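WP5 quarterly update. Target: Integrase-like protein. Source organism: Idiomarina aquatica. Length: 83 aa.
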Amino acid sequence: MLKFTRWYNYEHKHSQLNFVTPHQRHTSQDKAILAQRKRGMEAAKAANPSRWGKRDVRNCEPVGPTTLNPEKKPVKQEEKQAA
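Structure tokens (predicted):
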């Protein structure tokens, strides 16, 4: 279990965190990493715009607050019947 926890927190890049590790997020390294990533993608797009078309570069903004198991909104009775 310790091996998995270490991998999950220090190596695994989470999509909900814009592909940084939880450790990088908790130690405030994510802002610098994401800013550098954005500069790199913008430079790649400028160097070869035909590969990008009209697409913007990936979202490289630090995410706001997150929760592991967010509370689900209660489903109204009418919505249950419609499904």
